[in-house]
Amino acid sequence: MSSEVTPDGLNSSHIRAIGCMLRLVEQTVDHIERLLTEPVARITTSLTDDLDAEERRAIHAACARLRATLIEACRRLGIEVAERSRRRRIRGEISTLWAMLEDTKSPSLRGYGPISPGAGAIVDELLEEINVNLNRILRVVAESRPDVATRV
Description:
Layout: H1 12-37, H2 53-77, H3 86-102, H4 106-109, H5 117-141
Helix pairs in contact: 1-2, 3-5
């Protein structure tokens, strides 16, 4: 890849690094907006509904301004929309979870202190069931299907 310098004095490596950071900011804004609307009771987390309507509106407005700032930053710096595949993103998410699941199995948990064989067996059995279900998702997205590729 070329390290050609843009008129603003940024080379392609600078642009790539800034683009990655801007995508991370956008993902965080997406997550914040989901937090404003998702149910307070979930499977592993219970959210305290401690934002009133005015605070929610202010956060939505700030998110909208932040998105406008991101659009302007991308325009001014020449950062193009990154083409991504849903299949590859899902596979990537599952790969990350696999690594984390491996680090949560009973042999790894011993690093936090002794674990009884019975408790370790239960943890490992539950993690294996999670792994089985992740594999079900992975089988759906395992093969590329260009005939159904559409942009949204």
